[in-house]
């Protein structure tokens, strides 16, 4: 009787573990996993990758804000997908590339919050500017005309 009970428990646990192990097989590359965040610098490449940890022949698809990247007009001609490496790459990003990207395979979806890092552009003129505010990242100038 104990042997039957023990066999039942082991069978249940093995089924449970098999189901649990299969639930999360997509593993995106985050800069901050807690917030599912990836940060890129404007005008620099953005590389998203999504590892598949489950055996099988899966087709990985990429979405931006819930739409297949092939249908996003702003991305047309600016991205490439390297299927063998499970990568989505935008070679030269712009401000419109922020958004919620997803890697999708076999009815599983993992989201990646993609946020651009904006580096200010400085304009210098021959007039003497006044410094209005200064932080470690940026200096705000008020120009006299």
UniProtKB/TrEMBL annotation:
Highest taxon in the source lineage: Eukaryota
Signal peptide interval: 1-21
Record SUPFAM superfamilies: Immunoglobulin (SSF48726)
Record-linked InterPro entries: Ig-like_dom (IPR007110), Ig-like_dom_sf (IPR036179), Ig-like_fold (IPR013783), Ig_I-set (IPR013098)
Domain Ig-like residue range list: 28-113
Keywords: Signal
Protein name, per record: Ig-like domain-containing protein
Lineage, uppermost ranks: Eukaryota, Metazoa, Ecdysozoa, Arthropoda, Hexapoda
């Amino acid at each position: 009787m104990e042997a039957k009970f023990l066999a039942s428990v082991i069978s249940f646990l093995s089924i449970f573990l098999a189901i649990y192990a299969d639930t999360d097989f997509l593993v995106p590359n985050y800069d901050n996993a807690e917030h599912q965040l990836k940060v890129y610098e404007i005008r620099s490449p953005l590389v998203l990758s999504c590892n598949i940890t489950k055996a099988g022949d899966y087709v990985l698809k990429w979405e931006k804000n819930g739409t297949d990247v092939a249908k996003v007009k702003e991305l047309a001609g600016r991205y490439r997908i390297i299927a063998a490496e499970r990568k989505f790459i935008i070679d030269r990003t712009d401000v419109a590339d922020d958004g919620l990207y997803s890697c999708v395979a076999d009815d599983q979806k993992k989201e990646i919050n993609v946020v651009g890092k904006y580096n200010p552009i400085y304009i210098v003129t021959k007039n003497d500017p006044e410094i209005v505010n200064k932080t470690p990242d940026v200096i705000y100038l008020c120009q006299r005309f």
